[in-house]
Specification:
Distance between the termini: 16 Å
Order of helices and strands: HHHHHHHHHHHHHHHH
Largest sheet: none
Keywords: Auxin signaling pathway, Membrane, Transmembrane, Transmembrane helix, Transport
Oligomer: single chain
Structural class: mainly alpha
Function: May act as a component of the auxin efflux carrier.
Number of domains: 1
Helix content: over 70%
Number of helices: 16
Pfam family, one: Mem_trans
CATH architecture: Up-down Bundle
CATH topology: Na+/H+ antiporter like fold
Main location: membrane
Shape: globular
GO biological process, one term: auxin transport
CATH class: Mainly Alpha
Radius of gyration: 23 Å
């Protein structure tokens, strides 16, 4: 049973994040220490240095031979369900959008397991729950954040390649001029549309560009290197050299703090405190606290989880929004306002929501 002391431990873990957030917000809004351009540079520092090292550090210290593969399978099923629904919505619905599908996937599936999940689930179910939460974090970093990074890079690279075609710019200019003078025929419009399709980059050229960019992005391989080290270290029973450990820790310890600081900078540059508006905020909270746990419950039942493992699986799927998802959204220019709101308000409302799940799941056997 959760006591006030356990709630206090969770609050202790969360308050420092908001301190970093307020410092970032005040740095632009009140004290004018940073300019918006400098804020962009800080976000890139977080994206390409502190977060990859943080990911490597916690991934490298797990024991992959002791993972609960049924739990991981349930998590995979839950995420595949969400991906399938979002893909069908984007393709078949008139209001569907691939861009919003990407953001909805982040909102539904990517959680802040380590900061909030570890102390809270330790209080609820003990060390077994902590092990499962860490495993979920590692799989999220290795598989789902890597896939998200690939999709975001593909989207940006495709737009860049299309925008950089001189043929395309000339074609658009000619279309505009012709329309202005009223001499554009139906045949011309069809030829123009065909020309636009031809100007789009081929799949091979797009994948080559994406591959080169991801090869230069440390987020692509930080988790892979981390899990590789974890396999070797646990198989052959050796430890990371202290000089290597220290070199990683000096930056990785700043990962979450600088990410929250960057979010504060972003908030300060928005016109409203709730950057995305109340309707999108409610939408994000619904995906975070209901869609994720619902699909995780389906996946858990499908693989036969039961007892406390089932309860932990559902509750960890309702943890607050991943901070990394905001950093990626900011870097790639896709609904960063929605993700920042989901992180900030998600952590505020998560405690009563998660305790509510805990109380309800006590009746599940």
């Amino acid at each position: 049973m959760i006591g006030w002391g356990d709630v206090y431990k969770v609050v202790v873990a969360m308050v420092p994040l908001y301190v970093a957030l307020v410092l970032g917000y005040g740095s632009i809004k009140w004290w004018r220490i940073f300019t918006p351009e400098q804020g962009e540079a800080i976000n890139r520092l977080v994206c390409y240095f502190t977060l990859p090292l943080f990911t490597f550090e916690f991934t490298a210290h797990i024991d992959p031979f002791k993972m609960n593969y049924l739990f991981i399978g349930a998590d995979a099923i839950a995420k595949v369900i969400i991906v399938t629904i979002l893909a069908l919505w984007a393709k078949c619905c008139s209001k569907g959008s691939y861009c919003w599908s990407i953001t909805s996937f982040s909102l539904s599936t990517l959680t802040n397991s380590l900061v909030v999940g570890v102390p809270l689930l330790q209080a609820m179910y003990g060390s077994m729950a902590v092990d499962l939460v860490v495993q979920a974090s590692v799989i999220q970093a290795i598989v789902w954040l890597t896939i998200l990074l690939f999709v975001l890079e593909t989207r940006r690279s495709g737009n860049d390649l299309y925008a950089n075609n001189n043929n395309n710019n000339d074609n658009n200019d000619n279309n505009t001029a012709a329309l202005a003078f009223g001499d554009k025929t139906s045949k011309d419009l069809e030829e123009s549309a065909k020309k636009d399709d031809e100007d789009r980059p081929s799949f091979c050229s797009l994948m080559k560009t994406v591959g080169l960019k991801l090869a230069m992005n440390p987020n692509s391989y930080a988790c892979i290197l981390g899990i590789t080290w974890a396999f070797l270290a646990n198989r052959f029973h050796f430890q990371m050299p202290s000089i290597m450990e220290g070199s990683i820790l000096i930056m990785s310890r700043a990962g979450i703090g600088t990410a929250m600081f960057s979010m504060g900078l972003f908030m300060a540059m928005q016109k409203k405190l709730i950057a995305c508006g109340p309707s999108l905020t409610v939408f994000g909270m619904a995906l975070r606290f209901f869609a994720g746990p619902l699909t995780m419950a389906i996946g858990s039942v499908a693989v036969g989880l039961h007892g406390d493992v089932l309860r932990v699986a559902i509750i960890q799927a309702a943890l607050p929004q991943s901070i990394t998802s905001f950093i990626y959204a900011k870097e790639y220019g896709l609904h960063a306002d929605v993700l920042s709101t989901a992180v900030i308000f998600g952590m505020i409302v998560s405690l009563p929501v998660l305790i509510g799940y805990y109380a309800v799941l006590e009746f599940v056997h």
